[in-house]
Amino acid sequence: MSTPPARPNPPSRVYVARLAGTAVFDPLGDQVGRVHDVVVLIRLKGAPRAVGLVVEVASKRRVFVPLTRVTSIDAGAVITTGLVNIRRFQRRATETLVVAELLDRTVTLRDGSGTAVIEDVALEQRRTGDWMITKLFVRRHTGRTGLLRRGEAFVVDVEEVTGLAGGRAQGATALLATLEGLKPADIADVLRDLPDVRRLEVASELDDERLADVLEELGEEDRVAIVSALDVERAADVLDAMEPDDAADLVSELPSDKARDLLERMEPEEAEDVRRLLAYDEHTAGGLMTTEPLVLPPEASVANALAHARRTDVTPALAAMIFVVRPPLETPTGKLLGVVHLQRALREPPHTMLGTMLDKDVEAVLPEDPIGKLTRLLATYNLTALPVVDAGGRLLGAVSVDDVLDHLLPDDWRDAEDEVTDEAMTRTAHG
Question: What is the mean pLDDT of the chain?
């Protein structure tokens, strides 16, 4: 994203794109977090007023800091009074987030010269102490193709545009840039803070693999809404990229016609895995298992096993255990011979065959076994995963401890606000 021309700013003017990521300190110089976004109120008349900062503190929690608690905003630091509300920030209907909602928005120039895209927003502090949006750094659209023409970037007074409150298509370039490097769970947390329409806009701009990972971290209502809004071919591609058990959970939440259409458009092998999982009750081993654990034959070496465990698409819980089977190696496999724990493999020479170090005492479960039995086995034997087999001892999949935990927690656990206390921070009312 382009930034405004490099020139000295008056001390009271701050560009938000530059402010994002700035460290926030208390009066003693201790860092309490970093600026994530700016909250503004867009009014029918007059310049929009900034009311606070969204600050990311420990554990990726985003909290609201009223601008009345901010004593200084400089290029490299924001200083607060030290009073920080540690409750998780929740955007109100009357509030707008600058980075999440204003940047990339298309506005109309009042002089009749066309439309432009907002690339940055300038805040200025008035004598009253209020911070107002006064300037916009924009890039003009071409009249013929709608594409951006290089060299037509300029600063305009906020009163010289219309459309700040929305109504035009909005891109996601600026917000996506702030999500770069975040874990899927953190991106999901950002999406939950956005208005419904904006959430769909941003989600649709994520690539298939990234969106698949994020959907696995969202609650039922949000992920159903996102998948339902996607083009059916794109939605099928995203489901292909998801873990089979998570894809099955999502498909089961969709209307039957939509679910059937998506299954028909998915890759045949991926769709078959999902259909198999849908046949089981969601609170049984069959409903919780993934059909893609780490599976190798007994003649495979330790080096081969470690290479498979390093795959980025394998969760830590599943990477800790290699399931050793007779061919075929695709689930349903041949007979399960035993498991090899990653910790044991790390203590053996690379050429050692897995068949010589099998743990045959790990109890396999049947697909119809209830979640209570899985929980007891995982806890009793300190395991991260359990093999799921059919009556003939063939491996059907594996249940990991994180999948069991996910189903034991309340349905809305991802949206619940943690009960957090900190003597160094004083709770204040939001706003």
Answer: 86
So what's the pLDDT on residue 412?
59
Q: Which of 175, 12, 193 is nearest to 98 (CA)?
A: 175
| pLDDT the model gives residue 219 | 87
Superfamily of domain 295-406: CBS-domain (3.10.580.10)
Please tell me what DSSP assigns to residue 357. S
pLDDT, tens digit (0-9, with 9 covering 90-100), for 134-143: 999 999 876 5
Q: Over 80: is that where the pLDDT of 183 sits? A: yes
H or E, element range at 154: strand 148-157
Report the pLDDT value the prediction gives residue 415, as an integer from 0 to 100. Answer: 54
Using the 8-state DSSP alphabet, how is residue 9 labeled? P
CA distance 106 to 167: 9
Amino acid identity at 233? E
Torsion (CA) 269, 275, 277, 278 in degrees, nearest 10: 160
Question: Residue 167's pLDDT is what?
Answer: 56
Which one, of 243, 175, 165, lies nearest residue 402 by Cα?
A: 243
Residues near 72 by Cβ (< 8 Å), separated by ≥ 6?
A: 78, 79
- CB neighbours (10 Å) of residue 259? 17
pLDDT at 152: 83
Ramachandran sector of residue 199 (left: φ over 0; alpha: ψ -120 to 50; beta: rest):
alpha
Q: What is the mean pLDDT of residues 352-368?
A: 97
Q: Does 328 sit behind a cis peptide bond, omega within 30 degrees of 0 on the bond before it?
A: yes
Three-state secondary-structure class, residue 394: strand
The answer to whether the pTM exceeds 0.70 is no
Determine the Cα–Cα distance for residues 199 and 187; give it in Å rounded to an integer: 11
Q: What does the pLDDT average to over 352-361?
A: 97
Q: Contact, 320 vs 386, CB < 8 A?
A: no
Crossing angle of helices 220-229/244-253, nearest 10°? Answer: 80
Identify the sign of the CA torsion 266, 255, 280, 218: positive
173-279 folds as MgtE N-terminal fold (1.25.60)
Alpha helices in 216-267 (DSSP H): 220-229, 232-241, 244-253, 256-265
What is the structure's pLDDT at 430? 38
Question: What length does the chain have?
Answer: 431
CA–CA separation, 6 vs 305, rounded Å?
53
Q: Cα-flanking dihedrals φ and ψ of residue 363, to 5°?
A: -75, 125
Contact criterion met (CB below 8 Å) for 42 and 165: yes
- Domain ranges, ordered by start, for the chain: 10-170, 173-279, 295-406
